[in-house]
Amino acid sequence: MSDKTEMSLFMGPQHPSMHGLWSLRLTIDGETIENSDCQIGYLHRSYEKLLANRTYEQGIPITDRLCYVESHNYSIGYAHAIEGIMGVQSPEKANWIKIITTEIQRIASHCLWLAAFSVDLGALTMLIYPMTAREHMLGLLETITGARMTYNFARIGGVAHDLPLDIDKKIEDSFDQFDQLQGEFKDMLEEAQIFRIRSEGIGVLSKEKALSMGVSGPMLRASGVDYDIRKVDPYFGYDQLNFKTITRTEGDSYARYRVRLDEMEESMAIVLQALDKYNEMKPSDPYKLEKIPRRPPKEIKEVYRRIECARGELGYHLQSDGSNSPYRVRIRSPTFNNLQTIPPLIKGGKLADVPAVMGTVDLCVGDLDK
Amino acid sequence: MKDQVIEKIKTAFTLEAEPTEFEGRIYVRIPSDKIRDLALFVRNELGFTYGDMAYGTDTKEKMEMSWYVGHPESNLLIVIRSEGDRDSPEFPTLSDLWEGFGWHEREAFDLLGINFTGHKDLRRIYLPDNWEGHPLREDYVYKRPKYYKPEDELNV
Predict the structure, then answer these.
(1) CATH for the A6-369 domain, from 1.20.1050.40, 3.40.50.150, 1.10.645.10, 1.10.3720.10
(2) Within an 8 Å CB–CB cutoff, is residue A96 touching chain B?
(3) What is the pLDDT of residue B151?
């Protein structure tokens, strides 16, 4: 007889540290995790079929609902893919507006992640600070698009409307306040020993494993791979801006936290540069194409376009049959690949480390289940 | 780099159709018995170690499977694409070479009914195990799912 007492534990959606509707089945021996299995699909809406049953332009508002944390990036990504299959290009002014809004959305998304992640690790006060900071970003997006959550701002060949006149001052004010808050919560977290102990050296993801798993975004860069779609496969004119990708080599939970935190600062720098570029344009320049084709041209059969959203590589593959709706849509959602790393990362670890590892994936179940 | 990659693939394999390229994606069509040879070549010789995504497409006559693999230092993606029989599609798995394809192949199995030989953990991923039919197939007709009692053995 062995001393092993295996027990099966169901970490379901009702568990406070589960971000949304999915569940983790764990086999544990005492406190040590022997095996685990992710059970997803509670929120499966078959987006690929939904998009294929709609015309191209009808798809844009529903892609806003793919991920509730950064819905803007998901519709911008879809519009970007449609532009690919239609063979059209947004005017330059629209691209600068898109960069400004997607980067602000990235900061807002990282703020929400930080609030949730700190609470997972027991820093309960930290729920409020990033949420306040996020409020400034949502305020900016509200000024630009008119909505706080599902923006419906993307259009084929541009954006819905131009930036408001007083946007420079608003961005400056919001960033000033954001900077102050960010300094505060950096001190609060990084000087808290419990936070460091619980995140440093936990859930180490090696470089080779990360690549083979198809991990993307801050999770991949925390494992030492310098792979950012904005640099590798530039779109919207990111290649004209001067910014650096944040990488760390440790690959643990703390590295993933640091990458996201530093990325917020980098995003603010990108917004300011893009704003300068935007201000060089004339007010009469178009922000949207006048004429947009209803059907893709015959010679373009399929296209795969990707953007770097807050979670990683978001890609849309569109296949056309010449009609006004796509024949096949494939959504490459970043969390789908990133979540796969959870079973190997927590194997052999302690049960208490599960939230510390799971939190750094930055889950969004709407995106995961499609 | 793009032309070199296409040239290397063309010299190593006799392909029926030329590889095509659009926006940095290189589409390579290959019969299903050569998929693993091509995959090993692409991964070990050309250094495409990034497992990006995989999906199946129902083309009404055939069932098509595509695997996208990337290079960590370039924008190129090689699309390994193969056609199979529509009624009982079967492909060799690539989830042992790029672990990330594990869930993508499970998704194709779930929504299109594609079978992958050699996959370690091939079961439905989104839908319950006793769901009837595969919703992404073009001939799928939606039926109201029947009510499952709690004692039914469901892996959800």
Answers:
(1) 1.10.645.10
(2) no
(3) 64
